[in-house]
Design goal:
about 375 residues; alpha/beta; D-Amino Acid Oxidase, Chain A, domain 2; 2 domains; eight-stranded mixed beta sheet; six-stranded mixed beta sheet; 11 helices; 23 strands; about 35% helix
Length: about 375
């Protein structure tokens, strides 16, 4: 049995690596355990949306190369077939872009490099954890090769556990890279349809004939299966009808992928010496792109609590109750938003339809209300 660090982080994705770096800045050593090789993790091409608040948290840790990011300067929010449209711009949240997009692997590269340079961070890949046993004064991590590791705190940042095959997802997301004509640089779109929300986000780089954008289109399983089987031309036509001619013209559709959407949120972020972080704490609907951003705010709060306990030479477990309480309001607000918004905008009830159109109009007409909404999306609930 070996003691190497007071904090062991299970999961070497962006959330796990960011936490390790935040802890290092607070003089708390940590060890990151990941089941994947670094090459496999860096090959992940999923598109992530980082809010301005997340960029501020990452700035002391890493530098994101401009060629692999695309700024989000304006977000157009609308509901298909209804009046009311909100435009969130730079003047709604201060200076700089509202956020940026970046591929998962491109974010992982600078985070992994910074961890390698840090004397306070150790990363073990590939290395699979099979069990965590808790004792009154420590936690013991067991690996598939029989090795064990003793530590004060274990952070589970490995993501959502594999759901049971009997639990069918209520929705799928269709993902694709598309080319759109008529969209200004830095424009992003959140379009609510009766099937589910549709998001188009700016992509890094350039293409001929329009703007490269990443599509995330949520819908029931049967509709997802049908649209996945369409030709590119047929799919582009359906996407155009849902997107609306006012927003731009879809001129090209790349290969499509279908992923199940599972939602869960733990009631408590800790179980004695085990802390849940990122998707292991809450797996959110992709509407408004809040999952990773909420996870990064969890990281910052946890690092603050553990850093204070370390500075006071306390057992780190004494910091976890305060961390759980500190994250209650922000988590509750964002979980409620992402859980309820898709259902609210998909219903065909006339009173609800009028209410959501009125809400979009109110956000558009009243600048202070719109700024508060933009700040919620960028920074969460500040306490």
């Amino acid at each position: 049995m070996t003691v190497r660090a007071p904090v062991v982080i299970v999961g070497g994705g962006p959330v796990g690596l960011a936490l390790a770096l935040m802890l290092a800045h607070r003089k708390v050593p940590s060890e990151v355990i990941d089941a994947r090789t670094l090459e496999a993790a860096q090959g992940d091409r999923r598109l992530l949306a980082l809010s301005r608040g997340t960029l501020q948290l990452l700035r002391p840790l890493v530098t994101l190369p401009p060629p692999v990011t695309a700024p989000i300067r304006t977000v157009f929010v609308s509901s298909a077939g209804e009046f009311g449209r909100v435009v969130l711009g730079n003047d709604d949240g201060g200076e700089g872009p509202l956020g940026v997009t970046i591929r998962y692997g491109d974010l992982l590269v600078p985070l992994a490099a910074a961890c390698t340079r840090s004397a306070s961070v150790t990363v073990a890949r590939p290395c699979r954890v099979v069990e965590i046993r808790q004792q009154p004064a420590q936690a013991v991590v067991h690996f598939d090769d029989g090795a064990t590791l003793e530590t004060q705190i274990v952070v589970n940042a490995e993501g959502l556990a594999a759901p049971s095959a009997a639990v069918a997802p209520a929705q799928y997301a269709l993902l694709a890279d598309v080319t759109v004509q008529g969209a200004d640089p830095g424009s992003a779109f959140e379009r609510f349809t009766r099937d589910g929300p549709l998001a188009l986000l700016p992509l890094p780089g350039a293409v001929e004939g329009g703007r490269p954008m990443g599509l995330v289109w949520c819908m029931p399983p049967d509709i997802a299966a049908r649209r996945l089987a369409l030709s590119d031309r047929e799919f582009a036509a359906e996407l155009q009808r849902a997107f609306g001619a006012r927003n731009g013209k879809v001129v090209r559709v790349g290969p499509r992928a279908r992923v199940p959407l599972h939602q869960q949120a733990r009631g408590s972020l800790r179980e004695h010496r085990v802390v849940y972080l990122g998707n292991a704490a809450q797996t959110l609907h992709p509407v408004a792109g809040q999952g990773l951003n909420l996870g990064m705010r969890d990281c910052a709060s946890l690092a603050d609590c553990l850093g204070q306990a370390q500075a006071e030479q306390r057992d780190l477990v004494t910091a976890l109750g305060g961390y759980d309480r500190a994250r209650t309001a922000d988590r509750a607000a964002i979980v409620a938003l992402t859980r309820n918004a898709p259902a609210l905008f998909s219903t065909r009830s006339a009173p609800i339809a009028f209410g959501r159109s009125f809400a979009l109009t109110a956000l558009s007409v009243f600048p202070d209300l719109r700024r508060q909404f933009a700040r919620l999306l960028m920074f969460g609930v500040r306490t």
